[in-house]
Amino acid sequence: MQKSTPPEDLSRLTLLGREAKPSRKLETFPNRHPDRDYIVTMETAEFTCVCPMTGQPDFADLHISYIPDASILESKSLKLYLWSYRNEGIFHEHVTNVILEDVVAALSPRWCKVTANFGVRGGISITVEAEYKKPGWSKP
User: Fold this and answer.
1) Domain residues of the chain, as ranges?
2) Quick check: is 58 catalytic?
3) According to the annotation, is 129 in a ligand binding site?
4) Where, in this chain's numbering, is substrate bound?
């Protein structure tokens, strides 16, 4: 088995190593271990969007975990994707589910879970968990 990343894995990546600006494009590269179930977790404490009613900023710790099938999510594209919500007026529950849907559309993972822990607003914190399981796949 090859130890380093083959050049063909890099050929589809258009955001890595380029100027950073918000983008709704999620990029992937091939999973070199598709025969194994393993969990990839990506986290950020810097997710922001805004309340669609007040325009006030909402801050969240965001955790995306998935068991890849054929593809792996490229982290810079995820960073730019999440950045694109910075000024988006969207409810917590909706944005968490949209992120899950977009990650699933990009990856077609065996399993994926997005957890968003939003900061306290009006004395209440909100945690939203959205989960996807590929039809026919069962967690070992």
Assistant:
1) 21-133
2) yes
3) no
4) 73-75, 92-93
**pLDDT class of 140 with cuts at 50, 70, 90:** low
Under CATH, what is the fold of the domain 21-133?
GTP Cyclohydrolase I, domain 2 (3.30.1130)
75 among the known binding-site residues? yes
Length of the chain (residues): 140
Q: Cβ contacts of residue 90 below 8 Å, gap of 6+?
A: 49, 50, 52, 98
pLDDT band at 2 (very low <50, low <70, confident <90, very high): low
Among candidate residues 51, 61, 69, 102, the one labeled active-site is 51
**10 Å Cβ neighbour count for 118?**
21
Please say if 49 is a catalytic residue: no
pLDDT over threshold 70, residue 72: yes
Q: Is residue 74 part of an annotated ligand binding site?
A: yes
Does residue 14 or residue 40 have the better pLDDT?
40
